[in-house]
Amino acid sequence: MTTIKTYNAISTIGLDYLKQHDYEINTNDSPKGILLRSQNLHNEKIAASVRAVVRAGAGFNNIPVDDLSKRGVVVFNTPGGNANAVKELTLASLILAARPVIGAIGFANETRGGDVSLRTEVSKGGYRGTELAGKTLGVIGLGNVGSKVANTALALDMDVIGYDPGLNANTAWRIDRHILHAKNVQEVLKKADYITVHIPLTDKNKFFIDSDSIALMKPTAALLNFSRSGIVNDLAAKAALDDDKLRVYITDFADEALFDHPKVIITPHIGGSTVEAEDTSALMAARQLDEYLTTGNIINSVNYPDIDEPFITKYRVGIIHENVPNMISQISKFFGDNDINIEQLSNRAVGAYAYTLVAINDFSDTQQEYVKTALDDIPHVILTRRYVNENY
Ligand SMILES: NC(=O)c1ccc[n+]([C@@H]2O[C@H](COP(=O)([O-])OP(=O)(O)OC[C@H]3O[C@@H](n4cnc5c(N)ncnc54)[C@H](O)[C@@H]3O)[C@@H](O)[C@H]2O)c1
Ligand SMILES: O=C(O)CC[C@@H](O)C(=O)O
Questions:
Q1: What is the number of the ligand 2 atom nearest to the C-alpha of 78?
Q2: Is the ipTM of this complex over 0.90?
């Protein structure tokens, strides 16, 4: 049995999937895979046995991706698995930014005793809000979450302006044609009444919203952060709120500096916390993990190229290597030199790394034993795995 180590509360749907596919959960210290949510792996020792790490969720800034890539460990996430949950909480937060709902609920509870209806009617003027219709929403990052937020805001009669320089032919199609595409982020910051950020935390995106960007916003603007702590400079946001340069800041990431601020609403990282999102993300994660460990197919990796092909031969060898010239010819020569016929060879590269999946039918035990060690001796090969098709 293969062992998977888990961190955090993983939905039983994902765990059951693994158990049904002959995995044991947390039974020993030599797991083949790790399945986690927000656990910070940067400070954890990751066992030498680990071949795959899967984040049940979108953000993977809690995983030491660079170090794992050098070790040949494939890191996955589950894109889109919780996007609807984050969209819904973002929309709720837009309404909280427009209407003083939280204060009004507190006030209503304080009116107990006597003529409740009279007192609420007299004082409710203090809880008047504004409408979202006709206002402009700026969406920074139009990926799985941002595109859903942007599209749904149109149905609330908002004007929507989005910014995402990373859109490609596959991702651009999901964005409604009524959404204005900004050429730069400054255009969004200047135009929007509500600004919501849906980008990953990377070195480049650290403090993407800082005092300079807040200075471009309208002083009446509302800022929403359902991405990550560290994408918005909370101290800059606080200073702007104190100086009436920003109206409200809603964040899903608690920060000591923001507690009890009258213009701040904090939620405890619950953007993706719905039953549906946790189930979907855990199931995606479990399937991707099993698929890689048993077939070599890579689906939704964040550090290696995806290769997802039907396993129709008896064997496969997956070779993770550096993305340098002459690798495919060296690998195919290696198999030829050892009298092993290649039925199919797939190769893809992304950034500094590449993955080659070799499909084989006739593969003797001696050849398999030799290939296991000798392939690793080819310069720039990082890790080799052999897969057996039990259904062949
Ligand atoms: N609060 C939560 O519980 C919760 C849940 C899900 C996701 N998240 C966070 O939200 C982020 C986005 O999630 P997603 O599922 O939409 O991810 P995604 O990968 O589908 O989309 C991210 C988009 O951001 C764009 N982008 C990156 N840097 C940018 C920049 N500087 N300016 C503009 N666009 C930029 C990318 O091109 C991509 O299209 C995740 O990385 C994660 O950190 C939080
Ligand atoms: O696991 C969670 O609860 C949060 C997930 C979220 O931060 C993500 O990046 O997908």
A1: 10
A2: yes
